[in-house]
């Protein structure tokens, strides 16, 4: 039983192993290549008996299994296959149509390609011909130079072309002169020479037209060379490095070779003369900007630098005589142009720039050997123009200073302000320096400003002297002369105009006199200022002195005269306010109001005069008193006044007494005795004569040096007495002669007698005169 079991187990075990082996063989058959299947199948038969039957069974089972899977897959994809076939049937027509189009396109491309191919073959053939022709020409040029007339159009081979034509004409053509083409060449050679001349001349004309474009570049180079701004650049760089002169050289050489040099020289010189005239013609607005002048000078310098180079680089194209002739012509034109245009300049900075340009221009051309003395002489005229523009500019400066001045003493609050003033103006006064702050300096703020501006003018004037190659003495003389013009003409005129302005009153005039006194004192410091600049001692022979003293003295005298005039005008204004009642019976017993106001005005005005020099204040006071006395006298003798009463005379006398009291009160110190009162002596004696009625004494002592009424003129007494008489005759009421008493009749007879005697004296005086 155990054996059976064991056998059964063993049979079962063998069966399992067989199945496993068959499974392996099937997998190997399925996975290996067909060529390797033989060995695998052979192993089936090598196994146990009947094993191949079991393997076949296993194989059939595996095949059936795969058939079932294939069937399932076909069933699954059958519908998609059907749909795809349907779609393919649908696009069959489009595919056939597309095939027709592609065939047609291919046919047309083939047709077009045949034409392109033909053209390409033609291009290849033409290029081969072109290459062969170029090679032929090249070989011919090397073998027969005479057969290359096209070289004449190459500007770099003018000379070689001419030499070739000469060789052909003299050597080659005679050897083969029997050939017709040689005769043609011989006839062509003169035309070729003319063509070369024309081409070279055209090239020269282009050069002449373009040379002006190089003016700025040439001028810059020329300045650097002759002002040593770049060391030894002159040895390294030449004008030829900046401008291509080869057209001139070629044209000159060609005309020389062709035996026509004189024609070329005449043409070149004629054209350069024309260009010189164009270069020397300025623009109409050249005087407006410095660039206008700079461009003008640059063109001229460029022109003559080119001529100088041609002079030295060629043999006889231009001569020194020709360039000197051009320069003299140009110099005359330049001077005339600069005179005209500089006269239009009103800006001193522009005139100064013009001077600098003239100096650079002259120095540059002088370096090339051109005489420039006339240009430096012209600078003296330009200097005068520069001074004129400076004077006009400073006239405006002075005018602004005077307009902004307050004409009051300068207040200084502390030491710093004091030093700030004295640093700008040389002021020294021991008395003022001792005063405590705050204090006032006698001059107004315009004084240090004027002084500073005069120094600025000197600096500005000095700028013109730079680079003029003048000695210190000449510069010193120029500075002093220009400063004198500033003081005696510009500043003096400004002061005179200032003094005459209506808004300048007595206070301002007094301050102007004080200011001019201090400016006059400062003139010696201006002398020292110029001396420090030029290092020329003022003791040097022929040194010009500053005329500031006379300028300020004249201004001061004008201001004094204006003070006298304005005082008299003010007195006249008060006199016009007088309103006497000439027929009054008695006086008011007090002076007239207008006169008291006038005296108060004069008293306050003369107090302001304390800062003036003593003689000025005294003269002003005496002038005012005389004018007042004259005005009062004219009031009495006015022809419009027909009658006057004794009461009016008494009232008038009270006013004169106030004038005399004012004169005796010494309103201005310095008068001796009753000098000021003598201004009213004519009025006093006339009024006393009428008040006392002392006609007998007057008539008896008339003409005697000791006469009590020596200052009373008979004509004056007669004129006043006739007014007195006329009043008596025409009065009918409220008149001192209204009642004819005996004494009045006697007095009337006396008046008539006195009138007759006075007329006799007046007639005697007129006959004597």
TrEMBL record:
Domain Exocyst complex subunit EXOC6/Sec15 C-terminal: 375-723
Name of one Pfam family that matches: Sec15_C
GO terms under biological process: Golgi to plasma membrane transport; intracellular protein transport; vesicle tethering involved in exocytosis
Organism for this UniProt entry: Cyprinus carpio
Name assigned to this protein: Exocyst complex component
Keyword tags: Exocytosis, Transport
Family: Belongs to the SEC15 family.
Protein's job: Component of the exocyst complex involved in the docking of exocytic vesicles with fusion sites on the plasma membrane.
Domain called Exocyst complex component EXOC6/Sec15 N-terminal: residue spans: 58-218
GO cellular component: exocyst; plasma membrane
